[in-house]
Every structure is written in structure tokens, then in C-alpha cells.
């Protein structure tokens, strides 16, 4: 059993988390023409990195999406960061 | 250096010329009289040549079957299979050996039922006993509503030309009396979808049998040789760089399952794949209690019993993307509690071994077969949790692609371009099979 750190709830059981996708993708600009290839790349294609990764996860119990950096071979968690921006 | 190797190889072949290669009751008897000293090794272990007509990366079931069908169906014998570890040491040797074709979409049925049909004849075809036992595969239902969906699935399978029966609870009880038939069960059994031609095989034998048959056709099987890069010249792949040096070929096929994305990065193409750990379990041997395969979609767990008596147990993926060939404990709990829910009598049976493999999961739970996007490189991946059952068909259609440069009719719907056109084949939605 691993524990992941939600930026808002702290260390919690891994079962409360869900993998949402790799971080760093940019949604195509829909004010411009977007090709099928660009959409496919955004929606489906990914790096699936072996080793240190940057991913978006959701803490299902509080529904917060955040960035988790971890190693996909050793399964070590390297850190988590909130995605939300300050509203101030 | 090449001539020295060739001389060595010729010498080795001469020495083995009288050795027994064909397997039969007669050859077992004859070797028995000679102290079993005349059996030829299953395959040679040649040093890589400088160039091949086709290079296949990955010495698992799909890679070895591809090499075999390249030689047998297309007459292309100057082929190398390059494996970084040992043959069948990845998912081919780590699965629960279930073989079936109980899918929903016609495209999937054509692919997976080709596989079942090839498996039915495989032992004879490659002169190696893969122990395909057509003991049947049951997908249980736990409510009246699920029975309605099950009858739809059975109809779909029959329309697609695959054997399927809708079983009521009495039929299920006859086939698998060990399951929980109490009406107060958390998930009471109402019936099942049954595919009688489904069953289990011997996974190592599939790898070894294809390797031996491919070797006999002249294919070079090169183990302990890791691909470290592709030789890209003018944007076109001209071979691979390996830990044993450069090997040239105009056509390279990649069949490396959970490591597909690692090779994609080296080759300069993208894949819609995520790698996950998939766990499997085997218990101590017990007396025969189960002579079919039973899967409960409600718990996600399934089991069969091996010829040695061990219960072979599988379930869903670990939910964390992973390249570690080991599983996590929450999934173990889920899978094993599912088995105990299905068959409470098994609660006290002890686990003997448990392991995980890295599986390549695609967005629509269907495989990817086709050109990679980098000229000269072709891919066979995305089988997810169900690659073993598909080995013969995967090899058959991938060999066709590598030999001709064009899809076999059966593999065309599985081209990666479906993610651009939107013609996905979502079997997770279609047949409720989660890979």
C-alpha cells in the first residue's frame, strides 16, 4: 500500500486517487482550425515515460486535480503540486 | 569475423545432424532407448548477422509468432528476433493463459477468432504441445438485467460466427459446482455467457514452440540483446543499434508490449499507450475443483485450475501507471476478495506465487497494428491485458504487414490511424472486457 499526498488533504491511501493523464499537454486552440492529427495527439497520444514522470491525478474524495511527480519504475513519489491558481 | 561465425555455425550444425528434431511418440521411444542423449536443442543461439530482411524486436509470443509466419506464410527466412532478456520472459510467461474470442464487434471477433482457430491447430502445426485445453470460458451474470445484456452478447457472438451459449444458473452449477450458489450471496449467480471453444494453454510452450519452429525455418533468435536505438537515415529506419552492435534491415517490427512507448521514443513516433502492472496469482495444488474458466464482471476476478492443480487467478489492472514488474497490495485485495466472493470454499487455499507483468493499454482496449509513423518501423502493441490469447493471430497479421507493407484485411481496422479518424473499437464498452 502506498500513500500519496493530496496538496489539500495530505497523505492519503492510494485507493483514494485516480490517474487522469500526463501533465504538460496543451489543448489545441479552438479559435483556429485544428487538424484531426492535433486532436488525436491531444486526446489519446502520450509519452508514457519510463522513469521520472509528471502526471495529473485527482484525489477522488475531495475532487482536487493536482500534479504528481513520481518514478514509474521504482514507484517512488517525488512530490505533488496543486494546479489551482490563486484567486487573489 | 563473419566467416568464423559461419564456420562455427556450420560445424555446430554438422554435429547436430543426427540429433532428434521431430517430436512424436516414436521419437520419445527411440530416444528412451538411447538415454535421451540425442535431442537437438530447441533453437540455435547465433551471433547476429550484419543485416536481415526483417528484424522483429521482442522475443515474446507475438514476436516469435511473427517470425514464424514470416518464414512459413511469406517465405521470408532472413529474419532476426531480438530479445533483451530471455524468450517469453515478459507477459508471455506472466499471464493466466486464457484463450477465448468472446468479443462484441465483428472486427474484434475476426481477429481473436482467427487466434482461437490457429491455436486449435497449433500443436500439430509447430510440432510442439501447447496444451490448448478447450475447457470453456464462462462470464457470469449476477442479476436479471445482466442476463439481458448477456443474451445480447451471445447473439452478437453467434451473428459474428463464434460459438456462444447463454447458460442459466443450473447449467453453470453443473459446469462449476465450486461457485457460490446461495441466494444470499452478495453477487448471486443468475447465469453465464459460455464459449465452449475457449480455454487455457501452456504459455511457455507457446513461446518455446514458436521459437523452435521459427528457428527450424532459419530465423535467428538472439537473446540477451537489447535494442538501444534505431538507425534512422534521412528519416527512414534502416535497422537497429543493439548491445551486440548494429544490425541493418529495411523493415523493423516492434512487439514489446509494456515497453512499446520506450521504443517509440527511440524511433521518433508516438503511441496512445499507457503501461500498467497486471497481476496474477497461483495457489498451492488442490484436487480437481474447477474444469472451466469463470470470470465475474462484478468483482473483476476470474480463475481456472491448472493441470498441476494450482488455481490460476487473475483480475483487473493496478490503477497506477507502472513499468515495475510487480503489483500493489490494494489490487491484490480486490482480486482475491473477488475470488472468495465467487467461491467461498477457496478462502483457506494458500497462495503459492504471485507476480505482475507490464501491459500496454490503449484508449479503446483494442490493439494497435500498423505502420508506426516512422518509415520502416511497424508496431504490434496495445493488447493490454489480453495479449496471450491473441499471439497466433497477432503474429499472423503482423507477419503479413511486415512481408507486404500492407495490412491483412483482419488487421486494417486496428491501424493506429483510427485515433485520427475516430473509428475506435471500444471493447471495454462493447463486450465489457476491460482491456
From TrEMBL, chain A:
Gene Ontology molecular function: any one: sarcosine oxidase activity
Coiled coil regions in record: none
GO terms, biological process: tetrahydrofolate metabolic process
InterPro entries reported for this sequence: SoxD, SoxD_sf
Listed transmembrane segments: none
Record protein name field: Sarcosine oxidase subunit delta
Lineage of the organism: Bacteria, Pseudomonadati, Pseudomonadota, Alphaproteobacteria, Rhodobacterales
UniProtKB/TrEMBL annotation, chain B:
Keywords from the UniProt entry: Cytoplasm, FAD, Flavoprotein, FMN, Nucleotide-binding, Oxidoreductase
Enzyme Commission identifier(s): 1.5.3.24
CC terms in the record's Gene Ontology section: cytoplasm
Cofactor(s) required for function per UniProt: FAD; FMN
Family annotation (InterPro entries): FAD-dep_OxRdtase (IPR006076), FAD/NAD-bd_sf (IPR036188), Rhodanese-like_dom (IPR001763), SoxB (IPR006278)
Pfam family, one: DAO
Single GO MF descriptor: sarcosine oxidase activity
Entry similarity comment: Belongs to the SoxB family.
Protein name per its UniProtKB record: Sarcosine oxidase subunit beta
Organism whose genome encodes this protein: Epibacterium ulvae
Amino acid at each position: 500500500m502506498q500513500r500519496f499526498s493530496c496538496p489539500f488533504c495530505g497523505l492519503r491511501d492510494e485507493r483514494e486517487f485516480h490517474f487522469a493523464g500526463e501533465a504538460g499537454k496543451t489543448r489545441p486552440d479552438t479559435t483556429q482550425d485544428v487538424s484531426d492529427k492535433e486532436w488525436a495527439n491531444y486526446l489519446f497520444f502520450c509519452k508514457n515515460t519510463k522513469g521520472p514522470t509528471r502526471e495529473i491525478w485527482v484525489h477522488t474524495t475531495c475532487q482536487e486535480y493536482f500534479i504528481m511527480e513520481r518514478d514509474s519504475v521504482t514507484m517512488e513519489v517525488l512530490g505533488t503540486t496543486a494546479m489551482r491558481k490563486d484567486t487573489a | 569475423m563473419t566467416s568464423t561465425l559461419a564456420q562455427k555455425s556450420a560445424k555446430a550444425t554438422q554435429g547436430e545432424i543426427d540429433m532428434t528434431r521431430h517430436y512424436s511418440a516414436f521419437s520419445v521411444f527411440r530416444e528412451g532407448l538411447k538415454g535421451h542423449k540425442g535431442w537437438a536443442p530447441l533453437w540455435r543461439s547465433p551471433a547476429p548477422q550484419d543485416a536481415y530482411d526483417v528484424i522483429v524486436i521482442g522475443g515474446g509470443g507475438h514476436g516469435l509468432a511473427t517470425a514464424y509466419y514470416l518464414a512459413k506464410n511469406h517465405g521470408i527466412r532472413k529474419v532476426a528476433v531480438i530479445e533483451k532478456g530471455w524468450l517469453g520472459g515478459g507477459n508471455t510467461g506472466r499471464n493466466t493463459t486464457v484463450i477465448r474470442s468472446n468479443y462484441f464487434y465483428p472486427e474484434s471477433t475476426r481477429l481473436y477468432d482467427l487466434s482461437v482457430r490457429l491455436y486449435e491447430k497449433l500443436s500439430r502445426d509447430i510440432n510442439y504441445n501447447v496444451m490448448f485445453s478447450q475447457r470453456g470460458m464462462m462470464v457470469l451474470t449476477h442479476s436479471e438485467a445482466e442476463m439481458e445484456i448477456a443474451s445480447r452478447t451471445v447473439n452478437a457472438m453467434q451473428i459474428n460466427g463464434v460459438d456462444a451459449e447463454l447458460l442459466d444458473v443450473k447449467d453453470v452449477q453443473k459446469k462449476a459446482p465450486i461457485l457460490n450458489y446461495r441466494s444470499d450471496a452478495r453477487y448471486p449467480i443468475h447465469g453465464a455467457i459460455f464459449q465452449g471453444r475457449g480455454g487455457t494453454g501452456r504459455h511457455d510452450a507457446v513461446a518455446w514452440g514458436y521459437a523452435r519452429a521459427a528457428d527450424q525455418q532459419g530465423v535467428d533468435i538472439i537473446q540477451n540483446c537489447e535494442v538501444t536505438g534505431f538507425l534512422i537515415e534521412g528519416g527512414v529506419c534502416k535497422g537497429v543499434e543493439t548491445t551486440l552492435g548494429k544490425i541493418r534491415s529495411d523493415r523493423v517490427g516492434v512487439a514489446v508490449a509494456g515497453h512499446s512507448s520506450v521504443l517509440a521514443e527511440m524511433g521518433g513516433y508516438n503511441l496512445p499507450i499507457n503501461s500498467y502492472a497486471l497481476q496474477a496469482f497461483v495457489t498451492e495444488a488442490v484436487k480437481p475443483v474447477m474444469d472451466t474458466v469463470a470470470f465475474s464482471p462484478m468483482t473483476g476476478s476470474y480463475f481456472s485450475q491448472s493441470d498441476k492443480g494450482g488455481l490460476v487467478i487473475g483480475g483487473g489492472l493496478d490503477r497506477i501507471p507502472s513499468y515495475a514488474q510487480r503489483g500493489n497490495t490494494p489490487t491484490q485485495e480486490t482480486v482475491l476478495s473477488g475470488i472468495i466472493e465467487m467461491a467461498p470454499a477457496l478462502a483457506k487455499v494458500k497462495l503459492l506465487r504471485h507476480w505482475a507483468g507490464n501491459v500496454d493499454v490503449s484508449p479503446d482496449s483494442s490493439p494497435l497494428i500498423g505502420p508506426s509513423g516512422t518509415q520502416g518501423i511497424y508496431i504490434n502493441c496495445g493488447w493490454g491485458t489480453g495479449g496471450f490469447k491473441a499471439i497466433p493471430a497477432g503474429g499472423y497479421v503482423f507477419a503479413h504487414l511486415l512481408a507486404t507493407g500492407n495490412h491483412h484485411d483482419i488487421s486494417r481496422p486496428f491501424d493506429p490511424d483510427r485515433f485520427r479518424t475516430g473509428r475506435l473499437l471500444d471493447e471495454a464498452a462493447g463486450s465489457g472486457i476491460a482491456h
